Amino acid sequence: MSSNHPVILFHYPHSPFSARVLYYLALRGIPYDQCIQPQILPRSDLARLGIRYRRIPLLSIGRDVYLDSRLILERLERLGAPNPPFASTATPEQRGLERLLASFTLDTGLFKSIVQVLLPHTPLLHNEAFLKDRTEMIGAPPGYNFADFLLAGGADALMAVKGALEVLETTLLADGREWLAGTREPGRADIEAVWSIQWLFSVPGALPGEYISARIFPKVFAWVERFEKAVSVAQKGFRRPETFSGEQVADILGKAAVSEAADVVDESDPLVRAERLRKGQVVQLWPTDSGSRHKTVGRLLGLTAREITIETTGGEVSVRVHAPRQGFRVAALAKANLS
């Protein structure tokens, strides 16, 4: 990437959603740098940019910052970057499979079930600061504890995960193919399905062998192992990312150029009409599920059927924040304060 459009990933180690993006960066051969964030709030590096969004990862390309790993991958798809062995999305069927697998992981409750199976086997179950932070993130009522969520319904969560692995074992992988879309190299379809499963497989003791094992799901386990090897090979020829402090990132983004225009507020959009939104208006932007109490303030730059863009106010540096329409809301500042 050019010095005017640096690519910087905001993440922390062992974040499964960050892994989803890191896999893509490695397999596509996209050079990037990083700003490592704490696992729990506060995150002063983001506050410097006027960003109150509390989920990880975020990715900046130039002065544009992208929220949510779905939108991040969509933006990276548009980069004219080096492309080592990586299956391009060549057909409508492959593009459809990618979307279905993303929904399979994120929209069916599978990821929530994986969290319930995995985290009770980690020290985080006894980390009071982590539990308090995640309790606040999910917007739980007073007196609720995130540990209660993790320990409730564990048997059902295990069966949901087992069922998802059975789907992969008996359908897409059943014919002996190496990669889910039937390609010669790993592609985005594999990334969309593997990131949460690999996270689960990587935690010692998380898998009850009588339900989930390489003996029961040999094709799934072999596929995950192939994917890990492919990423490892890609990373060997990869420039190691430089790690920047929050102060350095603020300076870099303050001097960076805009990476893409976002100057369309679709006046025919039902939300624009209902809320009487207009370009340049001060608004608040927030996710509708976890982290909904943390709202980023800025001036509305763009609103289309797929994306919301605002320019932050209140930080040391103003950046352009992009969020997908799915799972996010935007409202005029006065109205947002009432929600």
From TrEMBL:
Matching entries from SUPFAM superfamilies are given as: GST C-terminal domain-like, Thioredoxin-like
GST C-terminal domain mapped to chain residues? 91-245
Protein name in UniProt: GST C-terminal domain-containing protein
